[in-house]
Each structure stands twice: as structure tokens, then as C-alpha cells.
Amino acid sequence: MLKTFCITGRWLLLLLLFWGPAAAQTHITLSGTVRDAATGESLTGATVRVRELPGVGTGANAYGFYSLTVPAGAYTLEASFVGYATQTRALTGAGSQRLDFRLKPGGSELGEVVVTGRSAEANISKAQSGVETLDMKQIAKVPVLFGEKDIIKTLTLLPGIKTAGEGSSGFSVRGGAVDQNLILLDEAPVYNASHLLGFFSTFNSDAVKDVTVYKGGMPAQYGGRLSSVVDVRMKDGNNQALHGSGGIGLIASRLALEGPISKGKGSFIVTGRRTYADVFLKLSHNETTRNSSLYFYDLNAKANYTLDERNRLYLSVYLGRDALGLANTFGQYYGNRTATLRLNHLFSNRVFSNTSLIYSKYDYEIDILANALNFQILSKIQDLNLKQDFEFTPSTTQTLRFGAQAIYHTITPGYVVANDGSGVNGTADRTNYSLESAAYVSHEWQAAPRLNFTTGLRLSEFSLLGPGTYSTYDAQGDVLSSTTYPTKDKFLKTYVRLEPRLAASYELTEASTLKASYARNVQNLHLLSNSSTSLPTDLYVPTTFNVQPEAADQVSLGYYRTLGTDKTYSLTVETYYKALYNQIDYRDGTELRGNFDVEASLLYGKGRAYGVEFLLRKDLGRFTGWLGYTLSRSERQFTQINAGAWFRARQDRPNDLSVVGIYQLNPKWSFSGTFLASTGNAATFPVGKYQVAGQVVSYYGLRNADRLPDYVRLDLGATYEKPHQEGHRFRSSWAFSIYNALGRENPYSIRFQADPNDASRTQAVQTALFKRVPSATYNFSF
């Protein structure tokens, strides 16, 4: 299929190249890039419009490239981006031209402080719904745990995005499971976006330029997950001058260095971060504590170089690792590695190409060295990905995107390596191999001055490959047959699915828009977890003979509006319904750890999620922030669970409220706060007891029929910017915060035990992680 698509794509590209010169007889094409004048960073989403043609404009893509095809004439082109001074360029001739913009930061007065790098006005005009973009300047002001700026934690403050629980980096989007989110770092998938069991995310804020999350009908170029895409873009680095920045906190420190490879043509950025809790462990008088480890580190590096006017090369690398060890008895180590090599190429001033070769790996290792035991548990998921994307702009009212990708997966769900004399036996390495490929086409079309459409179609294919051993099971989970396929890369089973996408918007007025969308998504990689939150040791399995591809159909309807004469406020109200198919759950009593034939314990059913989201933002002025509220339900149905009745999914939280406020008192001081309140997660509690061989055993009620206590938290923060001295490059600031300022003991987990005063009664014991956690971080740049 992929070969056929490549041949078809070649002919389509030739057609586009011939179409361009033909159309140019009566039209001209204006193209170029929009970048930051001081650093050379591309300004994704910057608006470029023609002054003389009302309503004619476009946005720069992820690499800062734009293209406009307009009737031949004399024009003035205008480029703008929130937080930057608008720049204009006049055409110097009658034909097609390349006009590059280098915008300078502007609007720095207190009265024009902005929250986000994307304007509400752009959100009004686009057909795509359910899209949120965060700027790093915004994230820097939000108070977080231990003072570490955290992308994932900030995302969960937006409506429709819910954290998996206290102390977890997992999150649920519109009722989906934590594994139904595609997290990309410069196009490379990140399978576990957490450090220290979820207290921190893998993303060092010093390395990140911006973050975009698609909650609803994601564009056709994205696929492989049911609920959302979190697209994280790293900074390109400063191509004008050498700069550095960093921070020293109570638990972690970080350092970043960026500068030109060749001024104006290429640049690099390198960032590093490490915690040092293990340093303080060395001070303990206890030998076990001194020999224990508790730390993580991560390294981001990126370089880019302009080969010529039509070609630009990028290389991005990420390496992160966690180590949690108890002396010489236990160790848990896990981490991600990614690398992305990209080539941007301009076939013409209308046809933009991006070719990417991507590597991604996540693995974990557990070492047990105690009580005559000596063994390891190993697991990994590794991808090699080739991706080709094209963007063609035939006119000012149309943009066509199309492309293809192929991913070779190597997945080791988990196996035991035991030394001679160990108290346990080793297990077979059941590594499996698969090929996931897709081809897509997407068309953005302004059908009328107020009516916009985005249509798309994605054809996805998943093939299970040899070698491998696979079993089939009966309704009780007993093995019916087991077959070993020894031939490498032999196609054992193939699934092909079509994924249509449609989004439409109609501008009711200049300040308000009505949007609707539909999207079908398919997922072939599945995370197996029976914990309430996502853990590093959860297992990934591919679609197999038994595990079918998951699928979801989502429809949404939204109302978008800017408020105030200067568009200071924006309001979004969006409702959605999502139907989910081939969902995975577990038989009652399933234990994943040490279970290396986990498919025997799987059940398959369906789900539904629906709700309404409200978001009110204030984007300008001394006081900025947002108020978000979600009213929603997420339910599942399995024939063998709760007698086939619908039941709550673990992530079902009907009410979710978040309030974020940032106040710029003066050039030195700013204050911030976040308030969160939500219904507790669904849970299963014991409802009785019985005895087996003299042992008291708890009897649990219906699946997820109970709830954890409601979650309430208030975080407070303050930032002091040291006055900048004219002529000095060094800048510094202090960030102070209090996490959970109310001191509420929110539940991390609840366990059940016999009441010490009455063994016939059950006692619930709640574990809370944090009461009040103050922090201080010193930040600097030079």
C-alpha cells in the first residue's frame, strides 16, 4: 500500500508543480518565512495578510513558512504575531516574490502583557475546533510542584484535559484513557512523559518553543491515538548571538546554551536538567540510605542549518533517564530516547516539503537482589519512523496537505532474566514486531468569506510481523491454540482502516464563530495498566490476532467569541460526544506484574464519553488568566463486567474546575495562583468479607461503583525580576511558590485493611502525598 501511495504521490506532486506555473499567468505567489529578529526562531502561526485585499491572509506553518497566491497587482504585505511589533513589506515588482519577515518583540508595556502566543482572533477564523496552544512565557508564570515549570501539568489546567491523579503525569482527554494521547517531541513519539513516577514531565521548559494540543477532530496528518495529540516543538536556537540560561531550584537545576553555527544561517541549542535528591542521601548515617539512588536527568539538543534558499536541515535529540534504587536490593531504571532528522525543501513557492527520519525508544529495567533472589525484569518499545509531508497552496482560499509514513515497531512487553542460583526462573523473551503505515490528504478551504472547511482522509494499515509466538483464547481466557512463527518480517495479520475527518466553521459576526467537527481515529498500540495512574512499568502491546484495533468516532459543536472592544477576553463553549470501540479491560483479580501471558486476562468492550467545556480567557492587561469548567461523563460496557451494564471509567470525573490568574504588579513583581476542584476518580471498594482456609478475604463490589474524595488544591506563586542594567546581558529572577497552600490532604491512594479494634470490620486508609510544599528557584540568562 505504501509503495502504491508513493507512486501516486509522485504523479500528484508533478501535477502540482505544473499547476503552479499555469496559474501564475493571472496570479502571483508571495511566500517566505516569519521569524524572530533577535533569535531567528520561526514564529509558528504568525499571520500574514494583504492590506489591499480585506480577508486575504494566511498563517505561517510549524517552520515559519507561508504562501499566498493572489491576483497580480501592487500590494503591501503585513506580518503580525502576538507580542511582536507588526511589520509591513511592499512588493518590489509585478511577479511572484519571496518576502521574509523578521519581527521584533513589541508591546512590552504593562498594559499589553499577553498570556498566549496565539491570538483569539486566529481561533475565530480557523475551522479546526478543540485546539489549545500554550506559550512558554505563560507556563513560566504558573505555580507548580517544587518550582519546576511543567508543560503537562499546565495542560491539565485546561477544560477537557484531566490529570490521572495526584503525583501523576498521565492525563485523560475528553474521557479517553491515558494511553490514548499521542505525545510528540519534534515529531518523535514519547511513550512515557514522566520523571520520578509522574511528579515531573520529561519536557525541560528551557528547550521548548511552544505546545499545541488537539482535543477533538485532529487534522489528518496525525493518527495512531484516539483522544488527543500533544505536539511539542523544541526551540531552534539563537542564530544571531550566543546566549545561556538556567535555574537553580530546591530539587533540580538546569542549564541551556544556544547560539549560531553560522550567523543567520544555522543555530544550535543544548539543554540539561538533573535532580540532586541523591546527593542529600549521601549525608545520611544509614548505610542503606547512603547507597540508594533517587534522581533523573534529561538532555535536549537541536541544530539546524540553511543549506540554500530552498533547503534547511534539522537534527533534534532527546535523552532522559530515571534511577530509583534501594541500596543493593532493588533498582528501577527507565527512560526515553528520541532523535529526529528533518529536511525542509521548497519545490516551488507554493509547494513545501518536510521529510523526517525518526527514532524513538522507551525502556525500563527492574533489578531484584534480595533474599536469595537475583533477577531482572526488562521491557522496551522501539520505533523507526519514515515520514513525508507536503503542503501545497493553490490559492488564498485553499491549502492542501498530503503525505505518508511508515513505522517499524519492536515491542518487548516484559520478560525475566534470572542468574544461576536465583530463586526465580527466567521467562522467554516474547519480543514482537509490527509495521504501522498511513497515507493522508487534508484540504483547508474558505468556501465563502465567512464559511471555512477542513476535510481529510487517513488510510491506516497495521501488520503484525514474525517472528513470534501467539495464542488464541476462549471466553474464559484459556489457551485454545499457540503457534510459533519463525520467519522474520513475515506478515502474519494485517488490519486496514479508513479515518475520515471533517471540520467546518461559520463566522456569525466578526467576533463570533460556530464550529462543528467529526473525526474517526484508530489506535493499534495499547497500554496495559490496572493501576489508577500511569506507571513506568505498565505494559505496551500491539494489535494482534486477539487484540483488535481500537477506534473512536467523535462529534463536537462549539461557539467561539471574542469580548470587549479591544478583544481583551475570549469565550469558548464546546460540547462533544465520543463513541469508543474495541476497548480493553481486565478480568476481576488480574495481576499484571509477573504476568507474561497477559492477553489471557483481557476483555473487550465499548465506551462512550460526552460533555461540555467552558473556557473564559483574559489575554491582555495587568491581570491575565483563564477560568475553565468541564461537565462530562466517561463510561464503559463489557459483557463480563458488572453483568454487562454500563459503568464508570476510572477517569470519569463529572465536574472539573480550574482557575488561573497572573497579575503583573510592576516591572519587578508578578503574582500568580491556580485553583482546582474536581470530583474524585471512580474506584472499586470492598462491600463485605468472607473466610478461605481461615484467612479473611475482602469481597469487592461492582467495578468503579464508588469514588475517591473530591480533589481541591490552591497553588500560589510570585516572581521577582531583578531590574535590568543597560548594557548588561545578564538577567536574573526569583520564582517562589507554595503548592497546595490550603494544606488539603488529597488522596493519592486508598487501601483497605482490617480494623485493629474489630477484625470483622474493614478500615479505609488514605495516603496523601503533599500538604504544603514551598519552593524557590533562581533563574538567570546571559
Write a concise synopsis of the structure shown.
By secondary structure, the protein is mostly beta strands.
Q: How would you explain this protein's 3D organization?
A:
It contains six helices and 50 strands. The longest helix is centred in the N-terminal third of the chain and has 22 residues, at 2-23. The strands form eleven sheets. The protein has a 22-stranded antiparallel β-barrel. The chain is mainly beta and 782 residues long. The protein folds into two domains: 2-101, Sandwich (Immunoglobulin-like), CATH 2.60.40.1120; 131-781, Maltoporin, Chain A (Beta Barrel).
Keywords:
five-stranded mixed β-sheet; mainly beta; about 55% strand; globular; 50 strands; 2 domains; Maltoporin, Chain A; about 775 residues; 22-stranded antiparallel beta barrel; Immunoglobulin-like
Oligomer: single chain
CATH architectural group of the largest domain = Beta Barrel
Number of helices: 6
The CATH superfamily of the largest domain appears as TonB-dependent receptor, beta-barrel domain
Beta-strand percentage? Answer: over 45%
Structural class: mainly beta
Radius of gyration: 27 Å
